[in-house]
Amino acid sequence: MSLLSKRQPPDTNGCIQQITPENAEWRYVGFAVYQLSRGQRLTLESGDKELCLVLVAGLASVKTRHAEFSGIGKRLSPFERTPPWSVYVPAAESVEVVADSDLELAVCSAPSTGGGLPVRLIAPDDVGVERRGKGRNKRLVHNILPDSQPADSLLVVEVYTDEGDSSSYPSHKHDKHDSADETYLEETYYHRFDPPQGFAMQRVYTDDRSLDECMAPYNQDVVRVPRGYHPVATLAGYNNYYLNVMAGPVRLWKFTWEKDHAWINSADYPRQS
């Protein structure tokens, strides 16, 4: 099974991506994207999962049984590079989303542990912004739902990588259970490009190469990472955005670097010409 999920034409609900634990053949991460026209309504049931609704682009009003957030959103493109508006939804909730403009909505999901957390709005001011890396290995990071903020399983972050740069690099992995060095986290990458006809290269591989797949995700494609290393390389002329969703049995982002490439973090990089 390919780890690349191609964008599909919108269905009657506007869905263009639908990753479930069943079709991904894993246990934790669910991910969907909806493209809604202004005035269109979407109804969701969280069931036994928690959700994080991310307004990738556009404006919306979101209502649950216990909260209502009217007229949220600001950016009309993720490439405005401002943090998004998001809504955290616990299990056993009904959600109605009304698109107040054309809307690109990501629905991130993972099993709930019954923590009893309330519905909450995650405003741009609640999102941690940081810049990571150096040389040609730089990116801008928006920490939407990091492990320092309350949730049962979900971790959600968005990343910007400029043309010609790499990210999710040096190669790192988080696929071990009961390890002092790593946590087991499944992960999805939802890719966007500016200009939109662009693509990137992403490789997913393990130390023993029992998994070794290289893909070219295009605009609104999703790469699934069940295990192993997963670096991204952009191409000249095309800036890259991706929305990451991670979840596993322990809600902590703990990873190890691939030894061959860890030197990219050292003072030896960038190399002097």
From TrEMBL:
Keywords: Isomerase. Gene3D superfamilies: Jelly Rolls. One of its GO terms (molecular function) is glucuronate isomerase activity. The keyword Isomerase applies. One of its GO terms (biological process) is inositol catabolic process. It holds the Pfam family KduI. PANTHER family: 5-DEOXY-GLUCURONATE ISOMERASE. NCBIfam families: myo_inos_iolB. This is 5-deoxyglucuronate isomerase. It comes from Izhakiella capsodis. The lineage of its organism: Bacteria, Pseudomonadati, Pseudomonadota, Gammaproteobacteria, Enterobacterales.
